[in-house]
């Protein structure tokens, strides 16, 4: 291929930027730690204060890894969805995954008031929220899958996903109406999204499921490329459409489902990252796009997190707002400049 | 005739085509018996709504046959696995692609999918086949262009090239000349004729360009209201098959020129 050399260079640059962003991300936080000491605490070198090493190793590092997993995972599930649904507006959440997760969390946080106080103490712990979010998105996914076996038209599946989203949103509103102010606040905070709440142990579980989703995505590369021709051509090339559609949906739900469960609903990344990557790499070949989206998603998420941290202040802005505030103008700018939505 | 000992690639016997719903069968056409030989260019003609697309969809296994039998290389169509069929039969459709942001080379290379490994890497042989397909359709110079930059005529050649790269015995095209001007209609059909001869593939296409098809095809399959006839174009003219193609109030077939005339 004529362009493979320039792609190699772009990948090298992206990897370097990723490393740079990673180091900048762990260098900033509410406590000021000099660069030298950040570096030393990574390699167990000599540091001025013991607590600095603790902060870097147990707070900033897991947060940076979470950011990378969230960015790359959501980006790739967006890429999968956009190709599968032949729709540039598709993202991991069009299948109703995040609304399913919201419903699960709303039931746990707000529902404890409705169903009586006995459960409240037991329910509202961190793991119960993670489990509720996973269960919620999994159940919505199962419903969508069952529909997708019956309905052959991918567009119809997309709309059904949107319908599921409005139904769950309605149930959440009803629950909020009966919830107490305190519970509402807790629910809204979950909705802000958060990268910094994960311990190494939780991060490990997130990483395990994320890896499974990644492996399935990589196996899907060939069928994704075939699907660029449309389903009829894909079938004529020997592709088993049903099986590929199933594995793409499963990969998406593994990635987006667990990420939403652990980090809350992170807006925008899944939709925007694939578009940004397409504009930069100017190709639809998924063999190039998939690794590029991976790197690019991780970079953008690290940058967003660094900004959300408001370096050297005590405040942390909701990550969900930052991803939209930074990402949306970038996509608009790219599209206006290139005047064309590549797909 | 030498064509008698040629290998039969596609054969239908007493084939009925149509649609099945829960309540009833709708038969579009029945008793279709056609034989397509190696290296033949075959045109499928008939009025709108007569069932050309249904026949092509049935032959490419997009929809099941109602009755009768279809065999490709003497093996029943139902017995082919998806992958086997992909190596025996390729298609060019009228529908547009999901993404036109692929380069011509990338698009043609997708024709090699049934032969590539799990991630779709092209071997040297694959690259050679792709380049050969590009040469055969005279589009080597477009190789690095994006598909959205092409004209309709160029794009049709790219899609034919992709089908060639798939390296199948049969290529089936659904109305390959729609949207094209007169010159490009003739160009594309002439190209198909040359490809059938050079590559010894069987090429079946549906078309409304009856006069061009009469001049270029080795064989025509004509669908009329009550029967499906297939023969060489001259024999069909002699038999007066084309007269039955359309209602006679507006146009009639002129045997001398081999084309339709508007009634005066």
Explain this structure.
The complex is a heterodimer of chains A (343) and B (264). Helices cover 77% and strands 0% of the residues of chain A. Chain A is mainly α and 343 residues long. Chain B has helices at residues 52-59, 82-88, 104-109, 124-136, 152-165, 182-199, 210-216, 233-239; strands at residues 8-20, 25-32, 35-37, 41-46, 67-72, 75-76, 89-92, 170-173, 202-206, 219-223, 228-231, 251-254, 259-262. In chain B, the strands form 3 sheets. Chain B has a 6-stranded mixed sheet, with helices on both faces. The longest helix of chain B is centred in the last third of the chain and has 18 residues, at 182-199. At the A-B interface, helix 11 and helix 12 of A face helix 2, strand 7 and helix 3 of B.
Radius of gyration of chain A: 21 Å
Indicate the overall shape of chain B: globular
* Overall SS class of chain B: alpha/beta
The number of helical elements of chain A comes to 16
């Amino acid at each position: 291929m004529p362009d493979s050399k320039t792609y190699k260079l772009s990948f090298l640059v992206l990897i370097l930027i990723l490393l740079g962003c990673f180091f900048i991300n762990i260098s900033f936080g509410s406590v000021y730690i000099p660069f030298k000491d950040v570096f030393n605490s990574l390699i167990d070198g000599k540091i001025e204060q013991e607590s600095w090493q603790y902060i870097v190793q147990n707070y900033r590092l897991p947060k940076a890894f979470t950011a990378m997993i969230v960015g790359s995972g959501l980006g790739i599930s967006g890429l999968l969805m956009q190709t599968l649904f032949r729709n540039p507006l598709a993202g991991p959440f069009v299948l109703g995954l995040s609304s399913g997760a919201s419903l699960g969390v709303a039931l746990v946080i707000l529902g404890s008031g409705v169903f009586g106080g006995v459960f409240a103490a037991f329910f509202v712990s961190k793991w119960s929220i993670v489990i509720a979010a996973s269960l919620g998105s999994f159940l919505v996914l199962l419903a969508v899958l069952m529909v997708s076996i019956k309905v052959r038209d991918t567009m119809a599946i997309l709309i059904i996903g949107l319908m599921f989203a409005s139904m769950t949103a309605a149930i959440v509103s009803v629950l909020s109406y009966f919830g107490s102010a305190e519970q509402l606040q807790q629910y809204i905070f979950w909705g802000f999204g958060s990268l910094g709440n994960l311990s190494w142990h939780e991060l490990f579980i997130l990483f395990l499921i994320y890896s499974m989703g990644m492996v399935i995505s990589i196996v899907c590369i060939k069928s994704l490329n075939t699907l660029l021709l449309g389903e009829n051509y894909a079938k004529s090339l020997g592709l088993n459409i049903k099986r590929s559609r199933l594995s793409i949906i499963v990969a998406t739900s593994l990635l987006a489902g667990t990420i939403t469960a652990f980090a809350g609903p992170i807006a925008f990344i899944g939709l925007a990252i694939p578009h940004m990557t397409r504009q930069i790499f100017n190709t639809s070949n998924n063999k190039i796009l998939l690794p590029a989206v991976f790197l690019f998603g991780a970079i953008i998420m690290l940058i967003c997190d660094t900004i959300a941290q408001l370096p050297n202040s005590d405040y942390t802005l909701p990550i969900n707002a930052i991803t939209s505030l930074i990402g949306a103008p970038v996509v608009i700018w790219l599209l206006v400049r290139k005047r064309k939505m590549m797909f | 005739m030498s064509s008698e000992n040629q290998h039969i690639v596609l054969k239908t016997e007493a084939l009925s085509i149509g649609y099945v719903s829960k309540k009833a069968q709708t038969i579009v056409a029945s008793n279709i018996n056609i034989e397509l030989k190696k290296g033949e260019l075959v045109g499928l003609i008939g009025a709108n709504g007569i069932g050309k697309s249904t026949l092509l969809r049935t032959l490419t296994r997009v929809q099941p046959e109602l009755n009768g039998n279809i065999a490709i290389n003497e093996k029943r169509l139902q017995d082919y696995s998806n992958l086997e069929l992909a190596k025996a039969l390729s298609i060019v459709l009228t529908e547009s692609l999901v993404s036109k942001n692929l380069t011509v080379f990338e698009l043609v290379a997708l024709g090699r999918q049934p032969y590539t490994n799990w991630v779709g890497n092209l071997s040297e042989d694959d690259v050679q086949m792709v380049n050969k397909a590009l040469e055969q359709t005279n589009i080597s110079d477009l190789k690095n262009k994006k598909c959205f930059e092409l004209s309709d005529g160029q794009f049709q050649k790219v899609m034919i090239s992709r089908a060639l790269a798939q390296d199948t015995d049969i290529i089936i095209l659904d109305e390959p000349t729609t949207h094209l001007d007169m010159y490009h209609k003739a160009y594309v059909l002439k190209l198909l004729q040359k490809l059938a001869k050079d590559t010894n593939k069987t090429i079946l296409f549906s078309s409304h360009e009856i006069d061009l098809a009469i001049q270029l095809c080795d064989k025509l399959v004509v669908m009329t209201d009550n029967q499906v006839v297939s023969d060489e174009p001259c024999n069909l003219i002699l038999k007066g098959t084309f007269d039955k193609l359309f209602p006679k109030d507006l146009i009639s077939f002129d045997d001398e020129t081999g084309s339709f005339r508007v009634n005066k």
